Amino acid sequence: MNVNAPIRRHAGGIKPSRDLDRMDVERMARGLVAFNPTIESIGPLLHRASLEIPGLATREKVLQVYAHNPECLFALARTDNVLDGLLQPEGFIGQLPLNGDGLHALFSGELDTADPDVRYLCRQNERPEAIYVWGIFVSPKLAGGVALVMERMTSNKFRAAPMYCKATSDKSWNFFLTLGFRPGVIWQGKLLPGLLEYRRAEETPAPSRPMSHASNTDRAPYDMIEDSTQCSPDGNQLGITVVHSLDDLLKVLSVRSATYIAEQACPHAEEFDGNDLTATHLLGLVGNEPAGCLRIRYFADFAKLERLAVIRRFRQSRLAFMLIEAGIAFCRAKGYRKLYGHAEPRVVKLWERFGFRPRTPHPTLSFSNLEFVVGDLELPPNAEALTTMSDPYVLVRPEGQWTRPGVLDRSARKSTT
């Protein structure tokens, strides 16, 4: 977001002290959380940043970019910095996920990073060609929050995208060098000395399925669920799917039986509480093996994420992280801006990574001989959420498959009688 002319320096022997793709999140980001800020909190946050960083993009531009793709801005906070039940943003990391035209515009100089045209930016469901680091405003106590944001950047959608930035001071120049950025980019045979580049790890597995970065306004954020295949440490592929069949529902029930009934001795009647046939279920797979699940139930103005479970032998994978991320994206596609849930104290930090905050003054409840922490998550508005004004054929498609022509789309081609 800083638009002053970049300070140009040689690497000067500075060696990277961090590998952005392999940061130890548990160690570096202890006590921190990265989350989507509320619209109301963005203005004060930018004001504080402007006192230290000249040339920030305007509040209006940041809000426009944020509405286009909320992954362009992550707020950072300490988990104990809560006021009236709300996490208080203390810093931020801004990024521009560039499509093909945006990457060309960055290299050619057509992209105004202080006033970026959103046509150069991917929507939340689209795979970027590259990521431009738009701005970083962190204190030393929040520096570990970089690891939280990079954890999201290792997902299937982002992992292959090179990262670029401009440095506007000696301090920021050296900071980027220590993160592994290198000065100078060659484009069409010309050196672009004002840009620094970070190449992603070459050994990172390539995506198994392509995800177009081309503009497609019909796509909903849910697409990131079906395309969010990743690899586990043992090489098996991780995937998430929405349950549509009785067979897949039985897989979900088997995962929960192994996790909650077998491991935690939860009574059968309490685990299978009569809500399974009125909910959406996400099924997590390792290869072809059912390995995890998440249940989503809907109320008037909020959705509840619950029954997150991962089979013991798969808990070192990213499957739990992927299930939560997919559940949030699914609810955003439906237009929900408030999510509610409860979790055992030992896994609260996992949920806090996504911006969930414990509720006060009555943050706990107990059942099945366990204590749970109640939490809430506020989501930014989604301009592409499903509404009554959406294409009627989209609204009659199978749940979560809103971008795919369904059986009723094909039926529409038949003559009416």
Detailed description of the structure:
This protein is an alpha+beta fold and 417 residues long. The protein folds into 2 domains: 20-198, Gcn5-related N-acetyltransferase (GNAT) (Aminopeptidase, 3-Layer(aba) Sandwich), CATH 3.40.630; 223-410, Aminopeptidase. 26% of the residues lie in helices and 24% in strands. It has 13 helices and 18 strands. Strands 10, 11, 12, 13, 14, 15, 16, 17 and 18 form a 9-stranded mixed sheet that branches. Strands 1-2-5-6-7-9-8 form a 7-stranded mixed sheet. Strands 3-4 form a two-stranded antiparallel sheet. The chain is globular and about 65 Å long. The chain starts with 24 loop residues before the first helix and ends in a 6-residue tail after the last helix. The relative contact order is 0.12. Residues 1-13 and 202-224 have low confidence and may be disordered.
Features:
single chain, 417 residues, alpha+beta, Aminopeptidase, 2 domains, nine-stranded mixed β-sheet, seven-stranded mixed β-sheet, 13 helices, disordered N terminus
Helix content: 25-40%
Count of beta strands: 18
CATH architecture of the largest domain: 3-Layer(aba) Sandwich
Please tell me the overall pLDDT: 81
CATH topology group of the largest domain: Aminopeptidase
Radius of gyration: 22 Å
CATH class of the largest domain: Alpha Beta
Main β-sheet description:
9 strands, mixed
Going by helix content, strand content and strand pairing, the class is alpha+beta
Terminal CA distance: 59 Å
- Low-confidence segments, given as residue ranges, are 1-13, 202-224
Total separate domains: 2
Provide the CATH superfamily of the largest domain.
Answer: Gcn5-related N-acetyltransferase (GNAT)
Tally of contiguous helical segments: 13
Label the overall shape: globular
Strand content: 15-25%
